[in-house]
Amino acid sequence: MLVFKSERMARRTIMRKEILTILSALSLSAGLSAQTVDTTYIYKDRKDSLNAAVFVGHQENSISRGKTLRTELISASGLQKMACCNLAESFENSASVTVGYSDAVTGARQIRLLGLSGTYTQMLDENRPVMRGITAPYGLSYVPGPWLESIQIAKGSPSVINGLESMTGQLNLEHRKPTEEKPLFIQASMMSDTKADFNLTSAWQISPKVYTIVLGHASGNFKTYDMNHDGFRDDPEMLQFNVASRWLYYTPELQVRWGVKAVKDRRQGGMDGYDKDRVRLLVSGPVEGSGKAGVLSSEPWGTEIDNRLLNAYLKVGKPLREDGSSSIAAIVDWSWQESDSWFGASSYLARQRSGFVNLLYRNMLNQSHDFTFGLSGTFDHIDETVAKFSYMNIPDPVVPAAERVMRPYSGISDHFFGGVYGEYTFHAGEVFTSIAGLSADWYKGNGFRMAPRVTLKYSPVEWFVARANGGRGLRYADPVADNIGVMSTHSGFAGDCMDRLLEDSWTFGGNMTFYMPFGADPSKTYISFDYFRTRFTRQLMVDYEVPSPSGAAGEESGVRNIYFFDSDGRRSYSDNWQIDFYVEPFDRFTVALTGRYTNARLENYGGELVEKPMISRFKGVLNLQYKTNLSRWIFDLTASVNGSARVYNFMRNMKDEDGSPLYADGRTPVYPLLYAQVTRRFRGFDVYVGVENLTDFTQRHVLVGGRNSSGELVPWTPGFDASCVWGPIMGRRINLGVRLTLWRATKND
């Protein structure tokens, strides 16, 4: 067992408290203390550990009790419940955040919060905006789970300090720190489908003032699996490399944080033998639009994705008073990405350069009054080219019906938005807290926009907390990147598919939490109720269900257009209710139960108010965990039930092999999912084995399209669509993994 000398431990504790005090004061890593989860716990010693200096966090999934904004925390130990490999796989034990596939061929995952697409949730890396623009479709897979200390989920309209792109909420990622006592951490796992994952982190103190941590990741899926026998890979073959370096320079007078991250990701999905170069050659006639689709009938259909990402950041903070009550800070972030994607005969080629600057001044007048003022600006340069393969019924004798049409779309857009903001926080002891913020920003091409946000917390007694927040959200839509699944269809594009519309929304909601005096630890037993409503005043809508312009003939052949259009006063809203219950009935056994109901509706292109398709109405999650003494054995079980969702109109006629309708009532079935994991801990060494999707439930007929006389899918047909995913694609999978931790020893170890 590793033991630290008391004097050395005390010295390190004092130093870390100083660091964390400045962190909080400067809003550099944890943001404003009123808005985000306190991260000071990451430096405490674990009492129930096999080692004396093992990471200790809050309970695995919890609602922050003391914070003004309703914040859900998934700690490092909570992330380990699912043996998650990346951020997209980190929310299976959460009902607040739902993760689904954008399509059945690329492996791209997307979150949903408050019943809306993850594009409306602001993603933050220690309070730096990330996963914007063309990075969004695959960004969740670029954050390895073992790199994280915690995930903080804030619903509604958080602080204006981090920008206004948080329409449904924020997800803030806290990475492992340069100051942690781990010179080496290794995690490796292997799935039964041969998907492998390897992660390494190493933290070092270079000098009395300089700390660093290096993070590495490699993952790959090297074997083709087609468990549903539709001729398409269930999961794309892929190879990904991530590397990052984070640094800290600290003195009582100055703190500087900086770092870089690079990602290389390549994946291939669809049918074996797909050759994008051959396909493009076959559909390229001497005259644009002259090639015939018939020449492709014998060619495999597939996807090929090649992404490259580079990110760098700098944070500088300086206290203006010794007690940290007044401080100034600057945050600078720059990113570059290239994305080359091919979908059958279609392609999406994009380049993006982005910059973000935030300058802020904070002044705590006393325990009751706190002011923050700042300047911020964001710049995006995006170069996109879309070559969309589609089938059209063209009434022209020269161009027969159902010919190949390659419609090119391209454009370069430079978007800038920035301005000033201010935020005032009032504390009336532990009973009442209010935060009022206002941001005034200029949007290129759209002029000035004012955005107020308000957060309230009221706790008249120790066992009850009520919260409410509301405000305005603004973001630029990226039509194709935000809806990457549209590329995996043979539908044409109509409307403004390249127009980066400035979307506008208002979100209001509240939470009530009751703490109850029972269980092994009554301070952790609670029941919580949420309600949030998001309403758009302007939104880029994407409608898959507009009738074919060619009428009935086009409908029968499967010819469709996907319409991109400005909502222009059309209704679009989402209502979200949630209940959470947490209890520890006896020592080392925890029960977490969550239920969520969503009513999301929009006014479609035809002016009809309909339920938003492919969004489940409800979700329930039960998580059980038991730990033996000293946490030598850890048993985790997560069960969820997922409610039905309205399918697209064109899916209503889909039939099973026996001829029975798949969606007789126009809705998906209710289905369960079950996850189990057993972990055995040794000194500095963990071994775990888990099962994902234990019930082996998968969506039937993930791919929509014509079939031949033998019932085989024929992808080169007008109605082919690989974006209609509502459930699991992969069946039962077994995961075996290890975690190795090397602790920094002292002279007496």
Mean pLDDT: 84
User: Could you say which structural class the secondary elements and strand pairing correspond to?
Assistant: mainly beta
CATH class: Mainly Beta
Question: What CATH architecture label applies?
Answer: Beta Barrel
- Give the overall form: globular
- Strand content is over 45%
- Low-confidence parts lasting 5 or more residues at pLDDT below 50? 1-59, 286-293, 393-404, 551-556
How would you characterize the largest beta sheet? 22 strands, antiparallel, barrel
The Rg value, from CA coordinates, equals 26 Å
The number of distinct β-strands equals 35
Under CATH, the topology can be stated as Maltoporin, Chain A
Q: Any idea what the CATH superfamily is called?
A: TonB-dependent receptor, beta-barrel domain
Q: Helix coverage percent of residues?
A: under 10%
Number of helices: 5
End-to-end separation: 8 Å
Number of domains: 1
